[in-house]
Design brief:
The complex is a heterodimer of chains A (about 160) and B (about 550). By secondary structure, chain A is an alpha+beta fold. Chain A folds into two domains: about 1-75, Alpha-Beta Plaits; about 80-155, Alpha-Beta Plaits (2-Layer Sandwich). Chain A has helices at about 15-25, 55-65, 100-105, 130-140, and strands spanning about 1-10, 30-35, 45-50, 70-75, 80-90, 110-115, 120-125, 145-150, 150-155. In chain A, the strands form two sheets. In chain A, strands 5, 6, 7, 8 and 9 form a five-stranded antiparallel sheet that branches. Chain A is elongated, with a radius of gyration of 18 Å. The model of chain A has no long low-confidence stretch (mean pLDDT about 95). The mean pLDDT of chain B is about 95. In chain B, the strands form four sheets. Chain B has a six-stranded parallel sheet with strand order 3-2-4-5-7-6, sandwiched between helices. In chain B, strands 11-10-9-12-13-14 form a six-stranded parallel sheet, with helices on both faces. In chain B, strands 16-15-17-18-20-19 form a six-stranded parallel sheet, with helices on both faces. Chain B is about 35% helix and about 15% strand. With about 550 residues, chain B is of the alpha/beta class. In chain B, about 55% of the residues are buried. Chain B contains 23 helices and 20 strands. The chains are: A alpha+beta (about 160), B alpha/beta (about 550). The interface between A and B is medium-sized, with 21 and 18 residues.
Chain lengths: ~160, ~550
Amino acid sequence: MLHTLAALVENHPGVLTRVAGLFARRAYNIDSLSVCQTDDPKLSRMTIVVNGDAQIIEQVRNQLNKLVIVHSVTDLTTESVVERELALIRIKVSSETRAEVLQTVDIFRGRVVDMGRTNLTVELTGDVEKVDGFVKAIRPYGLLELVRTGKIAIMRSEV
Amino acid sequence: MNEGKKRLKGATILLEALEKEGVDVIFGYPGGVLLPLYDALLDSPVRHILVRHEQGGVHAADGYARVTGKVGVCLATSGPGATNLVTGITNAYMDSIPLVVLTGQVVTSLLGTDSFQEADITGITTPVTKHNYLVKDAREIPRIIKEAFYLAGTGRPGPVLIDLPKDILAAEIEPFAADMDLKGYHVPSKGDSDKIAEVAKAISKSRRAVIYAGGGVITAGAGGVLKQLAERSSLPVVTTLMGIGCLPSGHPNLLGMVGLHGAVAANYAVDDCDLLLAVGVRFDDRVTSGLGHLFATKAKIAHIDIDPAEIAKVVRTHIPIIGDARLVLEELSNALEGYTVPQVGDWWDQLRAWKKGYPIKYDKDRLTPQMVIECVGELANEDTMVITDVGQHQMWAAQVYPIMKSRNFATSGGLGTMGFGLPAAMGAQIARPDDIVVLITGDGSFQMCIQELATIAHNKLPIKMVLLNNGVLGMVRQLQKYFSGERYNQIDLQGNPDFIKIAEAYGIRGIRVDSLEQVRGSISEAFKHPGPVLLEFAISPNDDVLPIVPPGKPITEMLGR
């Protein structure tokens, strides 16, 4: 099962290597990883999507916590969270397909951010399933290039 | 500018910080980028032992740490000096030994340019250190030294490496006090009281409980409370290789070492127990045979460890307790006051029958490695430290030598590093100059760090080196004998030198022993000799380490029972 872990880590060179190296040598599978500085410039926030059963995820958390540069690890999988992914997608279009593609972009609430004679680039945010769904929908028209950020997630506030 | 404060070199600040941490000795080897540091060392009270190879330095610091519990310190130059440390660092990491490893580095302006003797040692050692640092500003030195010693020596100990570029060591700054900044590091201390109460209850209800004790017991200084607990509740104790010494040899509750070359009674007891109290162990594959799912299957498993990542890593755990082994066992001991001693008469009848029926067997009427080791044990005292290399002799020492105290047995457990013994013995002797150090080694291992004989001779370290010479790489030969159909390959150490002449060339006394009659006399002579002695025993290549669990078999299926 896929788990989403949020790790607060120190923001200096070598930190990503330590985390990535840990996953590699312990043979944990990273599905996606996104990292950026937090509002505190000394800290970065990593959102790691990792595949494994409960025991493996517990191991991943414990091993991550052993890294001195990791301040905290939270498993967001069972929490109520808002999660998003950003994708940039270049799609092949012709005069015949352009209208259909634009309509599909509209349905998925994407935005066209660049347009050429034979292709257009769409920006799409949403949860992973939505991005997957969009990719599936436009693939028949010709998917030229796809860049995805990987998932980021934040806990929902208590009502 | 503040003229009240004298500016000091980074190297001086570093050495003063080491002094503050209680460092009395560094095992090191100089090099170009370390010029500022070796210059500053001339004016420092910290003793420097010049080793003959960086691997010797790191193993010596490791041996020093194992027999004292203090943090060992070693030093090497950049590039090859640093990479020569990697085996020793990994060795310490696998056995959770506290080290602070200092390496020189090229000047910061040349970092990343493939400059002369540059190696990315922080990158290389990231997987095998508890933490490491590349110092980029001399003002970071006091904080980093403080953090490094704290990280190395607390929680689950381990090696911490500090990479020091030459210009950082040479920079002149005003000294200042610094605080640690380790928000991501937390040391567990006491265990969860409810869980401890659960274990106490489980012990009282058990009929066939076993304590499985490892290196964590020794690290935590929990041998005393473990003994008390075992005696009070009539619990048998099996130890890992790293746990040897946590209970004195010959103690009635001690069944021996568990695992691939363990005592039969110990393996049977673990297999048959209804409660396994695992303390400071990691269910290593040399214990479980790599078959966690077939290990102690009838038992409820309580696992006490300071490292949360060890819980449920290999086996299912019913009662996990994260904490310091000594504190947890003390609380458990108190919790047991509320219960009557469990009824374990039948269990002990069984255990005694196994112990009696399956002793460690070896010939005493000819020159065998085991009888040599036994004889050394008889002539040594209970403060004698035994340091081993890796191979058959290591297992024979573990099976036969009567270790009476914690920290008197040092061996490369997790990594199994041939060449560890000689330099580790050196570190042990420097750490405890008034106690006897016995090195038990083989002709394969001995040659892997043999250059340290010079360090031993120069520093007049009175180590008693017991070399069990069978002319082969015995452990591999034994494996080929049992599991490769006697198709021996590359195990014959043809070309071995005359070891006595080698010792003598370094100015070290050498005694060769070829017959049974000479064994006792030569050992006793070695103990009387005030300096280092090499005792070489000619043993047969056909003497095997038995019993042995074949690869892939559960630990009850031992050959040579």
